[in-house]
């Protein structure tokens, strides 16, 4: 036991003979950076971009009906981002977009437009520029028009469209 006590004493004595560290002050710089990449956000992660509802009409009506996208998705984009959309032909694409009778096979042709004046047709898969003035509140410019032929079976007609957004 005496040996162990002696070795511990020697180590302590050796530690006492080491020089004490001196206080030092050093300084340097480093860079901090971040990159903001342009992009867009679908607010709330919505998967339903809205609806085009033409309303109800008599089966013998021959009047045109038009509507605009309602309850649509809200988008936000980095200012200056070029946003485009394209719309597919829908589930009833037979030489154009069609609404289909839910309880049958009857079809009703309709057109999509990118302007309220119904002068800019949205073709199947065509890229359309989405203009916006407020990058925090962007809505999709979609308008629809149907010409009722006056001889369709009564019932609910519908279609489902796929919208592709690019930036």
Automatic annotation (TrEMBL):
<dbReference type="InterPro" id="IPR007893">
    <property type="entry name" value="Spore_coat_U/FanG"/>
</dbReference>
<protein>
    <submittedName>
        <fullName>Spore coat U domain-containing protein</fullName>
    </submittedName>
</protein>
<feature type="domain" description="Spore coat protein U/FanG">
    <location>
        <begin position="28"/>
        <end position="163"/>
    </location>
</feature>
<feature type="signal peptide">
    <location>
        <begin position="1"/>
        <end position="23"/>
    </location>
</feature>
<dbReference type="InterPro" id="IPR053167">
    <property type="entry name" value="Spore_coat_component"/>
</dbReference>
<dbReference type="Pfam" id="PF05229">
    <property type="entry name" value="SCPU"/>
</dbReference>
<keyword id="KW-0732">Signal</keyword>
């Amino acid at each position: 036991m005496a040996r162990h006590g002696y070795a511990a004493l020697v180590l302590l004595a050796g530690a006492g003979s080491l020089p004490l560290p001196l206080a030092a002050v050093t300084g340097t710089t480093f860079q901090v950076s971040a990159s903001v990449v342009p992009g867009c956000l679908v607010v709330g992660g919505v998967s339903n971009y809205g609806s085009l509802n033409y309303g109800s009409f008599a089966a013998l009506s021959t009047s045109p009906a038009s509507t605009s996208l309602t309850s649509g998705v809200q988008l936000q984009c980095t200012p200056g981002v070029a946003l485009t959309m394209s719309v597919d032909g829908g589930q009833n694409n037979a030489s154009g977009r069609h609404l289909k009778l839910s309880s049958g096979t009857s079809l009703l042709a309709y057109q999509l437009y990118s302007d309220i004046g119904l002068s800019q047709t949205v073709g199947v898969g065509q890229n359309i520029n989405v203009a916006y003035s407020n990058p925090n509140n962007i809505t999709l410019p979609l308008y629809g028009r149907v010409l009722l032929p006056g001889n369709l079976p009564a019932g609910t007609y519908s279609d489902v469209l796929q919208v592709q957004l690019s930036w």
